[in-house]
Amino acid sequence: MTTVLPRVFPTVVHMLLEAAAVRPDAPALVFGDRQLDYRRYATSVAAFAAELDACGVRGARVATLLPNSIEACIAGFAVPAAGAQHVPLNPLYTARELQQILEDASPAVLVIDERLLGAGEPAAAAARVPRTLVVGPQSRRLDAPAQHPGSLPLPDPDQLALLQYTGGTTGLPKGVNLTHRAIAVNVAQREGVLPTRTDAERILCVMPLFHSYAMAMGLFLAPYCRGCLVVLERYQPDVLFETITRERITIFPGSPTLFVGLMAHPGFARTDWSSVHTCYSGAAPLAAETLRRWRDAVGAPVYEGYGQTEAGPVLSFNPVGGPIKPGSVGIPVAQTTLEVVDVETGTRVLPAGERGEIRARGPQLMQGYRNRKDETAQALRGGWLYTGDIGEFDRDGYLFVRDRKKDMVIVGGYNVYPREIEDVLSAHSAVAEAAAVGAPDSYRGEIVRAYVVLRAAATVSPEALLAHCAANLAKYKVPATLELVDALPKTSVSKTDKQALRARARVRS
Asked: How confident is the model at residue 111 (pLDDT cuts 50, 70, 90)?
């Protein structure tokens, strides 16, 4: 089954500009009791882009530390419109984690929500960010008056648009450089497999807007189809159920953790799902039983896809109009080639039914990692992106992702790198050695289990070590369990035997 590439805009800013020209009075954004039509949306973006431009950001980077909000949506278009590269930061990060990224990104400006100053301000100061713009309920809002005279500037499609940070093999985050053209073509590629109804969609955004998934399947999807994006600040089941009914949501992008949690809530059965015709799932594997239960209860299919930040991010999806295969992430999007190759050389293409590393080629791929020459050379080889994921194709050309080469754990859709957790634990004065591994979990997909060897004569409780983690790591990175052990298992070359630890962790699951 092949897919056709529909209309491709030069940049996502072009999408917003056309939506405002064609449907100026149509609803564009809803956030609680705040609403913007497309005219107000575009003028707000233009006004903030002009302010950023006056700060001298053109050709530089602008970081944003914002929870889901109208401000996050406006900034998501205003930064690229100002000719800068957008660096969206995770609002859950601690000051230590933010400082690492800010030092690497070296932004000219940090746009920060007033409620996040506790972590963001010291991180920005330590990273010597020249300027900070504070927004929020008690500071300032970014929705400008509809009569704002400024025009919406259009960026160069071949310039860098996004610097999105993902985990590194060393535990340090690495920034993915994406051009305007790569992002815009990926929106069209998604549309080719999952077509929307122009001027008719109401899309729920509960996924975090700093993440590539929420950007692709919410923030940028809405202006492409000239629909309305209904944004929730955070995941609260009661609020989500009420919003589905009140706002007559038609498209619901979610994740396996979200779907499982909602179905377990008493409010699920009382919610009117009749307006929802399509659901998307990404960020982690979706269990076949979850897909079946959701479809039977809601009456709308869940289309599961696959991608990476390095790929703009969408690589494949189960297509509308084609079979939805439980456990599969579907077929490649238009103008994209996916192959499964042998793990040893990465050059021998394997036939259907054989497992190997998934590699991708297409116009949505990243330019490389910022300041990571060696890791870029490892990921991008001969025009291919080597994903580090293990998969196989069936005879119909549907892809199944089976495992990961990298020592990564996906907790509720978030990438967690054990090395970072181990480094934080090892920094504690009582710790001699630490190891962290993933284990299956019916709700989060995976959880992290940590194992710690204490220094001689040192005494500290597992609870104290978990508190140490909580002070230095985002909540989802904190191990679910921490066990004090006399020694870590070792391989023949004296390395920590992660395979043995994973087996031990699975026994407890």
From this structure: very high
Angstrom distance (rounded) from CA 53 to CA 30: 27
SS3 164: strand
Query: Is 407 exposed, middle or buried, given 0-12, 13-18 or 19+ CB atoms closer than 10 A?
Result: middle
Single-letter code of the amino acid located at 217:
M
Stated as kind and residue range, the H or E segment containing 300 is none
Instruction: List helix spans (H) across 93-252.
Output: 95-105, 117-126, 180-193, 212-214, 221-225, 237-246
Going by C-alpha positions, the residue among 224, 167, 213, 157 that lies closest to residue 191 is 224
Q: Cα Rg for the chain, rounded, in angstroms?
A: 23
Q: How far is the first Cα of the chain from the last one, in angstroms, to the nearest whole number? A: 39
Buried b vs exposed e over 441-452: b needs ≥16 C-beta within 10 Å?
A: beebbbbbbbbb
pTM of the model: 0.87
Q: Could you tell me which residues are beta bridge partners of residue 381?
A: 384
Confidence of residue 149 (pLDDT cuts 50, 70, 90): low
Tell me the CA distances in angstroms from 408 to 196, 332, 404, one per residue in order. Answer: 33, 24, 7
State the Cα–Cα distance between residues 42 and 122, nearest whole angstrom: 33
Dump pLDDT digits (tens) for 214-232: 999 999 999 999 999 999 9
CA distance 282 to 293: 17
The residue behind tokens 């549907």 is 398
| Closest residue by Cα to residue 253 from 213, 211, 293 | 213
The H or E element that residue 501 is part of is helix 498-508
Query: In whole angstroms, what is the distance from residue 17 CA to residue 48 CA?
Result: 15
The conformation of residue 108, written as its DSSP 8-state character, comes to S
Please choose, from the candidates 83, 50, 86, the residue with its C-alpha nearest in 3D space to the C-alpha of residue 66: 86
Using CB atoms within 10 A of its CB, is residue 222 exposed (0-12), middle (13-18) or buried (19+)?
buried
In this prediction, residues 392-409 reach a mean pLDDT of 86
**Per-residue pLDDT tens over the stretch 415-462:** 788 888 998 998 899 998 899 999 999 888 999 999 999 988 899 999
Would you tell me the crossing angle of helices 288-298 and 256-263 to the nearest 10 degrees? 50
Question: What dihedral do alpha carbons 104, 107, 111, 114 form, nearest 10°?
Answer: 50
List 203's β-bridge partners, or say none. Answer: 229, 251
Torsion, CA 209, CA 213, CA 214, CA 215, rounded to 10: 80
CA 388 to each of CA 11, 228, 307: distance values in angstroms, whole numbers, following the listed order: 29, 36, 12
